[in-house]
Design brief:
Blueprint (H helix, E strand, L loop, with lengths): L17 H119 L5 H18 L3
Helix pairs in contact: 1-2
């Protein structure tokens, strides 16, 4: 028999050789059992890989959700920091404006004081010039001496603290 090709030797009476047919059936059954085992192993491997795939997909979904959650938390935190910084800016800006107004008022007061001081210094210069003129005059002139006394009295009043 050419068992590999599935051809059986014939018999004169009753068809094919029984042993050839039996051997062939056993061979086919063994191959079927071998393929069945391979199929079962492959089915098991496919099921294992499907489980791993499902686990990986679940893990990926959890990772996506975690990433999305973290992204939202980050944006919320960043928005909170931005709000806090804006509030601090507004507070500082208000304080700077108040300080600038206070300085502006102080500068106006100083400017007014400088104007007053300049006038007082000009008056004092004029009085010193008058004093110098009166000193250089004849000291025996009584009218000039009493006038000089009045100027000195005014100078004393100006130089005394208010």
């Amino acid at each position: 028999m050419a068992k590999e090709s599935g051809s059986f030797r014939g018999k004169l009476f009753g068809g094919f050789d029984r042993r050839d047919v039996s051997d062939y059936i056993e061979k086919i059954a063994a191959e079927r059992n071998k393929y069945k085992k391979e199929l079962n192993a492959m089915t098991g491997r496919v099921e294992e890989l499907e489980q791993k795939l499902n686990a990986a997909e679940a893990e990926l979904e959890i990772s996506r959700q975690t990433e999305e959650s973290r992204r939202l938390e980050f944006h919320e935190e960043a928005a909170g920091i931005a709000r806090t910084m804006r509030e601090r800016f507004e507070t500082i800006n208000g304080e700077v404006s108040d300080t600038m107004e206070h300085i502006r008022c102080g500068m106006t007061t100083i400017s007014d004081s400088l104007i007053h001081l300049t006038g007082a210094m000009s008056d004092a210069r004029d009085q010193f010039e008058e004093l110098e003129e009166s000193i250089s005059l004849d000291p025996e002139d009584d009218a000039d001496v009493s006038e000089d006394a009045g100027i000195l009295s005014e100078l004393d009043e100006m130089s005394s603290p208010e």
